[in-house]
Amino acid sequence: MMKKYSxxxxxxxxxxxxxxxxxxxxLAGMVVTLDGDLGAGKTTFSKALAQxxxxxxxxxxxxxxxIKEYEGQQMFLYHMDMYRMTLDxxxxxxxDDYFFGSGVCLIEWASVxxxxxxxxxxxxxxxxxxxxxxxxxxxxxxxxxxxxxxxxKQLGAVEEDEA
Length: 163
What we know:
- The chain has a single domain (2-160), classed as 3-Layer(aba) Sandwich (Rossmann fold), CATH 3.40.50.300.
- The protein has helices at 12-23, 42-52, 87-91, 95-99, 143-154; strands spanning 2-9, 31-36, 67-71, 76-81, 103-108, 121-128, 134-141, 159-160.
- 38% of the residues are buried.
- The protein is globular.
- It has five helices and eight strands, in the order βαβαββααβββαβ.
- By secondary structure, it is an alpha/beta fold.
- The chain starts with a strand and ends with a strand.
């Protein structure tokens, strides 16, 4: 089961609000993917999601470390950046241990490892509209994520995209 949603973020605070809202629905073993142009706001979104999960540490892009683990209030956040990875390199990292582990996986540049990702996930693509505005496309795959999408729609945070 898959559904698509979107929202227009008119300012950074809108993106942060979406991430904070999503954090309320996160459970261990969930995978959230982030793609978009350079400078679109992937790390900004990541910082807000981490804040919502109760991470107290400073969150920044794991571009060179590839995977950073943060302890949140209820669970870990595994923040990954696949920008500089090849599919073969990523396959050697043992990502399944993270995907099906005791925390939430948040993967920037996830399209690089598309073939390795679990089928059930929440995928976000951030499009730059102008200096301030972004369009965030959200694809929910799997019943838990479709439920989250429906909750966001009911709250007026996103609109459902008609296929």
